[in-house]
Each structure stands twice: as C-alpha cells, then as structure tokens.
Write a structure and sequence with these properties.
- The strands form five sheets. A seven-stranded mixed β-sheet has the order 8-7-6-9-12-17-18. The chain has a four-stranded mixed β-sheet with strand order 13-10-11-16, with helices on one face.
- The radius of gyration is 20 Å and the shape is globular.
- The protein folds into two domains: 128 residues, translation initiation factor eif-2b, domain 1 (Four Helix Bundle (Hemerythrin (Met), subunit A), Up-down Bundle); 224 residues, Rossmann fold (3-Layer(aba) Sandwich), CATH 3.40.50.10470.
- The protein is α/β, with parallel strands linked by helices.
- Strand 1 and strand 2 form a beta hairpin.
- The protein has twelve helices and 18 strands.
- The structure holds 5-S-methyl-1-O-phosphono-5-thio-D-ribulose.
- The site of 5-S-methyl-1-O-phosphono-5-thio-D-ribulose has 19 residues, from helix 2 and strand 11.
Length: 365
Amino acid sequence: MKVDGTAYRSIWPSADGRAVEIIDQTFLPFAFRTKTLTTCAEAAEAISVMRVRGAPLIGVTAAYGMALAMAEDASDDGLATAYDVLLATRPTAVNLRWALDDLRAILAPAAPADRFAVAYARAGAIADEDVEINRRIGANGLPLLREIAERKGRVNVLTHCNAGWIATTDWGTATSPVYQAHDAGIDVHVWVDETRPRNQGAFLTAWELGQHGVPHTVITDNAGGHLMQHGQVNLVMTGTDRVAANGDVCNKIGTYLKALAAQDNGVPFYVCLPSPTIDWTVDDGVRDIPIEERSGREVTHLDALLEDGSVAPARVVCEGSPVANPAFDVTPARLVTGLITERGIAPATRAGLSEMFSHSSEAAE
Ligand code: MRU
C-alpha cells in the first residue's frame, strides 16, 4: 500500500541481499521510519518490542530472522539456537511457530554453506505468499461489504486493533476487504477502536486508512456497544493471532467484548485470517491458547505528541496503583459469524475449518 504516494510493503529484502528492511512501527503515526535488521538478535528484538507486529508480519520477520542467523552460524547448533531465540519473542501469534517450523524443515537437510541462501529465498517466498493470501481474503470478504452498501448506500465496519497492511506484508487481513471495497468505489466507512493499551487502532489503523483515503472515525474502546445498539455498525471485522481447531478466535484484548456486543445487537462478527493462523494442535482456544502478559508500563504510560512537536511517554494511570496487561483474549466460536480466509468464508466450527483446509496449513495454492 502507499505511504505519502510511494508503494511500500511492511518488510522487504535489503538492496545488498544480506539484510531485511522494516517499517519501524514504534514511531508511527508520529514519524515514518524504516530500519535495517542485520542479525537474528535484531530480528528477535524487533518482534518482541513490536517494531514489527501483527501475526502474519511476525511470521515473515521470524523467517528472515532465521536467514540472518544462518549468515552468522549455519551449523545445526546455530539453527536450533535461532529457532529457540525467535520462538521466545512473543507467545500468542501462531504464525511465528508456523514460519519457524517451515524454515527449520527446509534448512535441516540443506548443507550449512547453502543455508543462508535457502532461508533468505524462502523468507521472501513466504512474504510473497502472504501478500497473495491477503489479497484473496479481501476478494472473499468484498461481497459482504458490497451487498450491505447496495442495500443501505454505505457500509459501516467496526474493527479492533490493527489487522491492516502493516500487520501483514501487504493488504492486511481485516482491512483487505475494506481497501478492495474502497478501491471499487463502494462507500465504506470504518469505526476504529483505539485499542488500549498500545493504541494500535488510533496509532496504526487510523494512520494507514488515512494514507489510503478510506473514511474512518476513531472511537474509544468503550464506544462500540453503544454504536451497535443504535444501528451505526453493519458488521465487525477483526484479524486474529491464532484460531483453534474448534473455531475459537484469539485476538487483541477487547475483541471478545466486541463480539458479545455484536451478538446482543444482531451485528455480524467476521474474523479474517490466513491459513497459517490456524493452530490445529489446539482443540479448545478459550482453554489452551497462551495469552501474552506484557509490561505494565504499556498501561501506565502512553506515547503522546506534545504541543512542541516532540513525542514523549505520558503517565495516564495513578502512580502506585498495580496494573495488569493481558495482551489478547479469546472469542468463543459461537460468537463468530464466519472466518474469512484465502479459500472462502468458513463457519467457525471444527467441521467448517477442516472441510476448507483438510488439516493443511499450507499457504494459498
Ligand atoms: O500485539 P499486536 O499488535 O501484534 O496484535 C495484533 C493483533 O491482535 C492483530 O489483530 C492480529 O495479529 C491479526 S494481524 C493481521
């Protein structure tokens, strides 16, 4: 997608073919900066401090991290260490493990001398596949938006967190139908949940929708239920970090409350995902998906643009009060209207997912 008129992906190989470039999302929306990652440690740091974030982009960055590790130490020990270091960066998004397993399976039989080239090429291929998958998710979700807009003149989508193009390699998951609808001339407007504590909605989703010219309105996390009660939301579309085999959906903290409000108000609740986000090893998402607990500082402090133009962390919680920061929650499958994937829209059930993917987590054909 475009930033100030220039087409970008969120991650791309460096010109010398030895490193990888990212958009450093910790500076958005106040500054647009890119960063070169040259080592596995830098890739791991970028994932854990959320310079890159969003399940699909975490997976692609981890794949490049494996490649960078192979340039440093291509031995079997080097491979095992890189896998462990990268896997420990964030616990919830399963795309991380998916990408690392993919890279390890390809690298294990390769001669150490070839491992960097093999891994670097595979990381690039995973990024390309991610773009195509997300384009297809958009194409599969587009008819839902078109049908509502044709009936009502405008379609109002509510989204939570950032499942946009900068959470993936390009297009986004939940934003892909929105971008494709907007580009097709459909009148689409997005309610953007601010998404405390890190404000991915107010900082990232609003920024990227604005860059693309999509009409949107940022709302507090508590406003969605009220808007749904008053007929101002036609459907909810979110991304996800992990979908269990039974259709339970893990996503940014607060998603579950939006699903409850949607059900109470008869608003369809769709989740957009690429197939590598399905975790076939987890039978019951509510019980078994690991929920990342992040630093309390994300709750007590918020980066703010000051009137003098500088950006600084501001305390927003009473000093001395204990805080908790679970970063994700799980929405039970019964609250999910449908799972929009690269292969079509699946019911959020074990049978629906198995039928569409026959237990394969392969990328788009
Ligand atoms: O903590 P984050 O910002 O990595 O969380 C991101 C989300 O929860 C997204 O909704 C999810 O990863 C899907 S991204 C297409």
